[in-house]
Specification:
With 178 residues, this protein is of the alpha+beta class. It has a single domain, classed as Cytochrome P460 (Chalcone isomerase). Helices cover 25% and strands 28% of the residues. It has helices spanning 2-20, 48-51, 61-69, 132-144, and strands spanning 34-41, 53-59, 77-88, 91-105, 116-122. Strand 3 and strand 4 (91-105) form a beta hairpin. It is globular. The chain binds heme C. Heme C binds next to strand 1, strand 3, strand 4, strand 5 and helix 4.
């Protein structure tokens, strides 16, 4: 009995290390985080098929600090909240949620993808993983590689205060790599 227990324990530890630890957590409460920016991608854009709609980018406290310094510490989480749009009478409104894209900084866990774990939660459902770690490199990281010098982050926060002494970097429009 005792012997069996000794053998079983490392097996449990190993399997949870492989399957559980690398999974990017659902970013609970992200709508209360810092709003970085929004963007509408309409028909005619090269990435309309994949990213058409309106997206809002949110950063948790560590990621907000990263936008300011250009270096993102472990624990930084950035959310790409993509919603469909509907247009009427010259107005564009949000419609159903398409995906909640996540970048989660953990330099050890996600060393193979620049220290960022990438995941997409289909329709924003915490239980619907559209990417999984096996596909993160090809589905997400290969494109984000273009921003290596910016810690793989495309967006830049527009200044959230005009006060002198504000150290935010200037707003820049993301240049989509297509
Ligand atoms: C074809 C290129 C491309 C692919 C593929 C791609 N992204 Fe991005 N991603 C971008 C661009 C460009 C932005 C900046 C958008 C903006 O400024 O509004 C961005 C922004 C983001 C952000 C906000 C942080 C940042 O870098 O600005 C997250 C989070 C994100 N993407 C997650 C993902 C995930 C998860 C995947 C895989 C499912 C993915 N991305 C695939 C190009 C890409």
């Amino acid at each position: 009995m005792f012997k069996l227990g000794l053998v079983a324990l490392p097996l449990v530890a190993l399997s949870s290390g492989l399957a559980g630890a690398a999974e990017v957590p659902y970013p609970a409460g992200y709508r209360d985080w810092h709003h970085v920016k929004s963007m509408v991608i309409g028909p005619g854009h090269g990435l309309y098929e994949a990213f058409g709609g309106i997206h809002h980018i949110y950063a948790n406290a560590q990621a907000k600090a990263g936008y300011a310094s250009g270096k993102f510490a472990d624990g930084a989480v950035i959310v790409f909240d993509l919603l469909d749009t509907k247009s009427a009478d010259g107005a564009i409104e949000e419609a159903g949620r398409k995906v909640v894209g996540v970048m989660h900084k953990d330099s050890k866990q996600y060393a193979a993808t620049g220290g960022w774990g990438f995941e997409g939660f289909g329709a924003g459902d915490p239980n619907t993983r559209a990417i999984t770690q096996a596909k993160a490199a090809t589905a997400c990281f290969e494109c984000h590689l273009a921003r290596r010098e910016n810690d793989y982050v495309f967006s830049a926060a527009r200044p959230w205060s005009q006060a002198p002494g504000n150290h935010q970097r200037a707003f820049e429009t993301a240049r989509w790599p297509c």
